[in-house]
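Subject: Probable lipid II flippase MurJ

B.,
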Amino acid sequence: MIRKLKDFLHRPNSLKGATGILAITLFLSNVLGLLRNVVLAGKFQPEELDIYFAGFQIPNLIFNLLVLGAISTAFIPVFSELIASKKIKESWQVTATLFNLVTIVLVVLSVVLIIFAPQTIHYIVPGFEKHRLDETIAVSRIMFLQAIIFGWSYIVSGVLNSYKRFTAYALAPLFYNISIIIGALLGDRIGIIGLSWFVVFGAFLHFLVQLIPAWKIGFRPSLTLQLKNQSLKQILKLMLPRNFSLGIQQINMLVFTAMASVMAAGSIAVFNLTNDFQTAPTVIFANSLAIALFPTLSELASKKDWPEFERVFAKSLRITIFFLMPSAFIMFILRAQIMRLYVGLGKSFDWEATIMAMNTLAYFAIGIVPVGIVAIYSRVFYALKNTKLPMYLGAGSIIISIILANFFGKLGVGGLALALSIGNIINAVLLYIAYKYVYHKQLEELQVLKTAGVSFGTSIIMITGIWYTLQLVDRFYQLDQIPTSTQEVLGLFIQTSIAFIVGCGIYWLLAKLWQKEELDLLHQRSKK
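Prediction pasted inline below.
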């Protein structure tokens, strides 16, 4: 049994197998993530969660700038190329050097920012009173430990992805979320500060789960620091544009956090909780596919097998749209029911805060499909070793989002979500135009547009069915002999579940009639 488990964790995965594993585990991770947020919303007041989420901002900025871009766009292509060239020794040397370099830079920056936290945090949450500001500073200082541990973990993730071993990589977030859930359940005793330590412990589990299979592959930390290594120079060159882009994105979140801090109490919490919820479909369907897609596209690009490159790209884009279009419509039509169950279950979020969350989710739903498209297009550009174009286009879109946020701020925190969604739409359109006119490649545009159009029309029919189902269940509850209603958790959950199942059923049945090609693509991916 143990041997089979080890084989499952260590064996390499094909694109289809990897996508399936990532989709399943990311689904479970997102379920846990949403459960985590439900517990957080039930155990802590919105004002306390404002502190918790604000405390993440600067550590996340440092991590995104120094690590995330390096791994997602630079380390994996270079490391994969070294493996393909049978330069195994050099591949481990550059990995160890990068590991040590990231550790040194993260530790030094973290120490400096921990010391100067009072000066920096004040600009992130200008609307906070002194006691909330002091607690945010304490949380932020603890979160720098998470940034360092995640730096190690994501380098190990890059090793596993390059060897196409996605199982441990996909399981790691489960352990991270479980740790936070346990901390949240103990919230009455340990408070926000105690919860922050559980976040750090979760990050350590995230690292440990991946370290075990990476160690078996051959990963070994060492005291080497070969700064003149050509592969390291290539990684640093490739990572700079992506890191700049991620830095701009994180600055966007810092600006939005500052704006939300001067809005109604709980606005930061509502923005982050609803943002986590709306990203779930993108993470499950688009990101899982994009992560599994990246090594394959990098390999095809290195071989210059452009017909297969285009075929894989187009299919991935169509599958992403096929899943995300109905997800966006479902989220919009069921936003009231979802938010009442999501943040309104506990006694911490009052009705006013719940309505704020409903409106915010509605605006976020507008950008779900574009975010998925951006995830796929970005990996395509990275596979082509072009990190500059996505950087410029992403930065431009984010600047537009920040400008729009100033106009839409009168809508409250929902206006921030609307600005972000419009920015994502612009980014998706610009990436499409750039790919078409820079590389002059045929992307089976008609098939992709057909998928988008049919999915849109089918989704309209689907939400019509959902709306009527909601009304029917509500009328059914009004009968004298029915012991529950939508004013109770059980009744609301039953109504939402029935409407969701009916909606999914309608979409799937219509897809069998009108989208057989997309279903065939799904069948092909799940077959292997």
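Residues 44-220+238-260 form one domain.

T.
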